[in-house]
Amino acid sequence: MPITALAFDLDGTLVDSIADLARAANLARADLGLAPLEVATVESYVGDGAASLVARTLANDYAAEFTGTSSQKEAMARFDTHYKQGLKIATEFYPAVQETLHTLHQRGYPLAIVTNKPERFTLPLLALLGIHEHFDCVVAGDTLPQKKPSAEPLLHVADKLGVPPGEMLMVGDSKNDLLAARAAGSPVVMVDYGYGENVADMAADAVISNFGELLDVIEQLKL
pTM (2 decimals)? Predict the structure, then answer.
């Protein structure tokens, strides 16, 4: 299959942001008189957007959902404040990400971000990271009515980039990325260093352990 464009998840795929997410979540908990959570616990709650993260970290329960209770709204406001003040304290690129994105950009591939992170965090973080100019389209968790694992974000990006969904490669680290790609009819490559679990068992088109391997995978998928 020809690969004519690429879409990337952000957290857990391009950048390791868990320390800053956990910091903001724990500061929000502290504001509400709650004890801090382990970073690994917060990591297990990541992937479905900020509202889900806040609901889960507030209750310390993966099954918790954001329903708009007064305590959840307060926790959300506190999280927003703390995270906006520290979007890039410890957040950093995974190895080979910057070089690979630059190479793909130089080769003329249209590139996009498809993340469940809200726009109010995504756009400033991309600017702070200095990579916003690489991307022709950015779809955050609240850009459209639906977010991953829905196909809608990927179909929207493919339409914006003017490519068939089957020629747009999704690169991510979680089940939501794979499900969204499959629903859109897009090929998908998973990274095994991010926040997702059991990545090797997800039947992706390829699994990589270093972002730089993506260039070889693209060539292989063309065959």
Answer: 0.96
